[in-house]
């Protein structure tokens, strides 16, 4: 079945595509473009529908002019819709607020999720007499003064406990993610993860019961009602452990959880400062260590969380074994590094008396054990050609310049995101790249990436205060993150009809292409800015030109023109001390 698909892009725009469902996956048939405004989006959607349904015009249902003396429509009202919404609002108990203006604002945004100011238009189209915009904003101020949130939470809880007809009610939650995972030794099943801000909450549903693990870092989601199951969380309150469906649900206090969250937040903040001062790690590395340590602390029993000195080697080893069960080597090594660093911090600050970092097991991974995965030359050229054809749009010009820096210079995605206007020396044709360890190195800027950057800077980059080269378009002028650079590559692969390619694979592709062209390993390491030659040695495995002379004939076969003397010569070894 062919349909129109809208896909958000890294710049904040909306891409419009014609796709078809095949074998459980969406295959993109045509990419029509990206829209940055509602008008552009409407135009692209109409163009897509015209391509899918050509020649199907609208029926002319006009009745002509109204005869004189006949009645005409002077107003309209969606009385039934408003009555249904108002009845539901009352049955849920929200009328306890006694605020008619707030009720109008809530129901209007249910009908059409628009801005608060535009709710006036929605109410007018519904035919509902409404208050002025100024009065509505005064009603919003009363929400904070009169604690509407707590009253609504209490009404939700009362309704769920009395009727039991709700399976799950969420509010004030930004992201809802459902994925498979195992957490802890006893709770195995599906994991419902609710993300809000920098925190998270997790509800594990093994089937007979449910557990709630509140997020750390102060970003706890609010307003979770899980009827007929084991967890109720309203404004932070939670009940832990499995219960039967017949057991009555209770509204628990969140004071203890808030205190635990505050303690962990302070501990992680101190840990981040220690990593910055004592280890001199980059901010992105500090964030990764703190994120992994937060997961470790979430699995620590409460009594140990209060006093880290109660931690023992068995708890640390058990967490690592369970965490690494379904994860790849890189994830396991990242968690091991983070936990070791946290335990060293805890020992250095007197929180633990034992040197527990030795209890963190090492992952079974060996250096140079894998092969660098290069992108086939034909696929790379297709990727760049499709991206180059999209340079008629502002987004296309920016993305094409990013792809060329990744493919022609082998930059890491974080280095592309951090590239500044002052890092480009146009007269010398060079750029300054700040890589790992804050090392700044200069590289020649080839003509092709240079021209692409110029096209983006002259005819695309919005006027803004940031000195970063690559910025967002909606909202304009925000620096692109490292993750956004990876999203640009994935979007380009999808537009070119290729399988998903990571940004770092373009770096491997450049190194492999240099070796095929006759470059030496030191030259490759110089272009890729490797600090140690050991990092470059992995590419020796894909250097076919250098490896071909080392190959030996398969036993039992004789190459053409290969005689007994040649075989004997191949077995000979140089005399000790001789130069040959």
Q: What report would you give on this structure?
A:
The protein is an alpha+beta fold and 580 residues long. The protein has 21 helices and 15 strands. Strands 5-6-7-8 form a four-stranded antiparallel β-sheet, with no helix packed on it. Strands 1-2-3 form a three-stranded antiparallel β-sheet, covered by helices on one side. Strand 6 (188-196) and strand 7 form a beta hairpin. The protein starts with a strand and ends in a 9-residue tail after the last helix.
TL;DR?
This protein has 580 residues and is α+β, with helices and mostly antiparallel strands. The chain has helices spanning 38-52, 79-91, 100-111, 119-126, 133-145, 148-163, 255-279, 283-299, 302-306, 313-323, 329-348, 377-389, 394-408, 413-418, 447-458, 482-496, 503-516, 521-528, 533-536, 544-547, 564-571, and strands spanning 2-8, 14-22, 25-35, 169-170, 175-182, 188-196, 199-205, 211-213, 224-225, 232-233, 424-425, 430-434, 440-444, 471-473, 476-479. The chain has a four-stranded antiparallel β-sheet with strand order 5-6-7-8, with no helix packed on it.
